[in-house]
Amino acid sequence: MNIKILGPGCPKCQQTEKVVRGVVAESGADAQVEKVTDIVQIAEYGVFGTPAVVIDGEVKSVGKIPSAEEIKAWLEP
Amino acid sequence: MKERTKLLLIAGVFLAAYYIPWSHPIIRQSGLEAFMMLQEYAKEHVLTCLIPAFFIAGAIAVFVSQASVLKYFGARASKILSYSVASVSGSILAVCSCTVLPLFAGIYTRGAGIGPATAFLYSGPAINVLAITLTAKVLGWQMGLARAVGAIIFAIVTGLLMALIFRKDDAARTSGQIYVPDAGDRQRSLLQDSLYLLTMVLILVFASFARPADGATGFWPMIFAWKWYITTAFLLVLAFMLKAWFTRDECVNWVDSSWGFMKQIFPLLIGGVLVAGFLLGRPGHPALIPEHYVQTLLGGNSLWANLFASVAGALMYFATLTEIPILQGLIGSGMGKGPALALLLAGPALSLPNMLVIGSVMGVKKTATFCGIIVVMSTIAGLIYGSLAG
Fold it and tell me: Can you give the pTM of this predicted structure?
């Protein structure tokens, strides 16, 4: 599983990365977490707002810090 | 921060502490001015203007649905609507500057195209609530109004010009799925949300109501005499609204987000005020930079002064709101009103670092055109405002 956090480095984006990494570590899911800060790459996903979370190419959340429960639900197969 | 950067920083501070002639009268005067200016902000602007403005910005970020605005930036949105929304949406979407660039890139590559994208890119940082209120408070309401109106007009004209100049390229954009933030559930009607925001704006207006000219009679001095009663009345109304219409969680989110803005912006503003005070001093009190330099370069309302202000503003990076104390210092040292507006219009929207990012999104040619349009228009606006305001 590949998780991408899209965001240029604002406080909310860092918070999102922290929450996602926390949930992944806690659940022991087999996932790589990657931070995408390049504006051009972010725009390729078509997200109108950051932070955004993309899991295996699918946009899961846009413009907010997702809650730990939401992230857990995405990680389940 | 890299270790090498830290070393350079410490070395820089050390060299400054070692070599700056601190006992020299001019340096002493400048250091004093820095703290006098900080005190002026603390006494005059923080409680009555900035704190209410932070709460308004926090409320906008939490309660105004971004999705309802963003749908006007889609590829199939009506063109007239996208331009109008782009020109004013900065006040809603761009309270945090980190949202501007990704959203711009999104609108440009997937959404409504280069026109609305550049209109938004310009208006975003230029017309947010905090910037306009503090400009009006510190530099006078005329300047605040000129900044707000100028920014909206500039955004539309820049967007239309960019769309016209590069109309062929726009056809080649990739189309694809776009994702906007969720609307979230709404418990309140639009009327309730608007009344709530309006109450806060009124608190801000009355709390920072300026003392009328001495000897004036009639309406304004009466409001001034009553301003704290009126402000308290609106605070009570606000408390009632919060109790009746909002859940506990919503209030917590609102305070959190206002606190987020304060944490982000206060340190930058304090730094900006200290630097502006040290270099330029308060009006009527000279500091490090001699006033005749400022007067020669930026005084009066010549074409040269306006152009210089626009180009300098376009290249310089201003952290959120710091442009205001810097301009206050410059005006106090003899900068003309026209060049001041030119700098306000060209400054916050453009800077060397963000030109590089914009360049990576839409290419050097378009970026250069975009900056060129803004510099030319700011110069013209400065000339016009300077001749009106004198």
Answer: 0.81
Which among B246, B261, B295 is the end of a domain? B246
- Is position A13 annotated as part of the catalytic site? yes
For residue B216, the model assigns a pLDDT of 66
The closest of B349, B347, B371, B367 to B358, measured between CA atoms, is B367
A20-32 pLDDT tens trace: 999 888 888 788 8
Looking at the complex, report in whole angstroms how far the Cα of residue B4 sits from the nearest Cα belonging to chain A.
21
The reported pLDDT for the residue numbered A66 is 85
Structural domain contains residue B52: no
Domain count, chain B: 2
- Please give the residue range of the domain that contains residue B229: 188-246
Q: Do B98 and A9 touch (CB under 8 A)?
A: yes
* Predicted complex: ipTM over 0.85: no
B305 and B320 co-located in one domain: yes
The token pair that represents B365 in the structure block:
């040619």
How far is it, in rounded angstroms, from Cα B130 to Cα B67? 22
Torsion (CA) B369, B373, B376, B377 in degrees, nearest 10: -170
Ramachandran class of B332: left when φ > 0, alpha when ψ lies in -120 to 50, beta otherwise = alpha
Same domain, B88 and B234: no
Q: Which domains are delineated in chain A?
A: 2-75 (3.40.30.10)
**Contact with chain A for residue B180, Cβ under 8 A:** yes
CA–CA separation, B161 and B182 (whole Å): 32
- The angle subtended at Cα B330 by Cα B328 and Cα B333, nearest 5°, is 110
